[in-house]
């Protein structure tokens, strides 16, 4: 299938030229619908291309490349980001980067923050999260005027449609009813980081879902980590005939509710509920058993034969969970491969060999 | 609670611990000579050692007598005290391992079992201890409960989750929203409610009932103790300063790990008296204090002695630190009449949970009030919340206050990352600048 996915920087340039208000949003969880309701477009900044040069003067060598690349991008004060930056509370490094940019480095645009509660959740957390949403709304109202409640309702409805369609697509991917290679599939997933929601929805609608499974891949894997593997790895897997049939990625399915939700009735309640039914995630301090359970469930339903962990170097949230996930998967005799990425565009010979060895192991296995 | 275990604990408390302490005292009578660069050592050191050794010693006999909780340094421990938990602070224990230069070994155990070498070394040492049972403290009791707060870092939540899973025990997490500008009413109410939500869980785990009056007493004691600790740090404004910050790193242990207990309260009165006395008599911690410095970030535990001597020999004394100040800075918010919200304000606004504008303001104030001439920042690979932003803090401070500063790349407790050559070069260059300024 040939999807026509606009290129990120060109697309954002066209948008900003047309006076669209664009906010740069750092990883990972934020109430996108609230931004949309204020006609603010969220352009997510995860791994902008280019070398890390100026950020090195502000950050230690032991800080993850997501943080460094984001700062490098912000320091350039790109024109396409014309409204401000939003730093959701994700991890210690991003937490500090937010205040570093706002209070020490200084940028010409406003810097906003959004706290995501951590740990195990109960009624107290739910009540608080709703208040955070309310406060966030009030803060945006200071700059962008009173919120139009109908717009918020419409934004939530659109968000709900996007979620539902993404769930269908994921389900189709797991059951071989999608004619997309790994590269194309993740381009589609990641297009939500920069396309206007209506454009993204139309793109999702173009995706053809087959009624019957197509011929399966030679091997099936699940990927876990923060970001999808680099295009070089995806391409390599495509060439080997390996399909990534499911994911446990922060930039992927961990941002999509665990199960379908009813269409929104009261927007803030809907956004609150949505936050609490996201899959367990290291960055929210989610329960380890629950994460294991989720990983197992996904790998069973997608018939994944092995798990590829593609970890961002120095990413503490993932590094802590990783040990137990690997240990348990190995006990279950599920092959596991761990790669570490610094988000450069290079696939080393060593990684290539390790991937090949891992895939060969899967080729020899009887599908689950 | 078993009668036998209780009896044994009581005997150890009343007779065993004092006997062991006396024995240790005899063993240690052959004191190491104090280098000339230093003033007379603090007499309170002896009492401090007794308290800490006793706490670790008695922890071996606590099983079956009291429930044991492993707690993070920033967690509101006063609530646990109301249920008489015996508390162990893994961060303190990791610092102890680090100070004994054994951090690398313990980290190696954790790494060998699959933990990455890129995670905080306090966590790796503790996980190494948990997996092997090794400890320089003899033996540590297994926890019945884990209690953590992300007011110092998110790391502790990931770390405690790993222990909770491994040992299959409950974990209570106190979620402290990061203060990006100022605490909101919603933040305070959220934290206050969480504390109250914990009571039934703590009652269940401890088998004890919660009494508000007991809790208020503990809170009062904790407030008073933190205030005394703050006054001790304040006394270092004197010239010459009666302690070095390296002394304070050690004397910090009771305020971190015994906060809310009479033993900590009493101890700081002893230390306060001694420090006051030294100020009155003009006794300095180093023999000839010419330059006064500020330390930023956690100690480099395995190099405390080296750094203390290096600077003292150059007539330089560390008189203040953001780290030691953390247990005194926000306790002014505590209010027995409004326990829950005041605890939310106290624990929610500590330095590592507060924005960098606040940190810059605090450091600037410390530099001015302590008449500081230079700044040493430890950029530690373990601790993101303490280290991310340091480069720009340094830039702002050196520009605003025209203060010489140096950044040392090292780690808190994993001695394997220490680079002698690099540190020496930087320190020498810093001292030259300071002496020439
Ligand atoms: S990769 Fe990990 S450490 Fe880096 S910003 Fe994302 S969650 Fe934080
Ligand atoms: S050293 Fe830093 S990261 Fe490690 S436990 Fe302490 S505050 Fe957390």
Q: What can you see in these coordinates?
A:
The complex is a heterodimer of chains A (368) and B (437). Chain A is of the alpha/beta class. Chain A has a domain at 8-147: Rossmann fold (3-Layer(aba) Sandwich). Helices cover 47% and strands 13% of the residues of chain A. Chain A has 13 helices and eight strands. In chain A, the strands form two sheets. Chain A has a four-stranded parallel β-sheet with strand order 2-1-3-4. A four-stranded parallel β-sheet of chain A has the order 6-5-7-8, with helices on both faces. Chain A starts with 7 loop residues before the first helix and ends in a 5-residue tail after the last helix. In chain B, 54% of the residues lie in helices and 9% in strands. In chain B, the strands form two sheets. In chain B, strands 2-1-3-4 form a four-stranded parallel β-sheet, with helices on both faces. Chain B has a four-stranded parallel β-sheet with strand order 6-5-7-8, sandwiched between helices. In chain B, helix 4 (90-99) packs across helix 6. The complex binds iron/sulfur cluster (SF4) (2 copies). One iron/sulfur cluster is lined by residues 91, 120, 122, 152-153, 155-156, 298, 352, 382-383, 385-386, 412 of chain B.
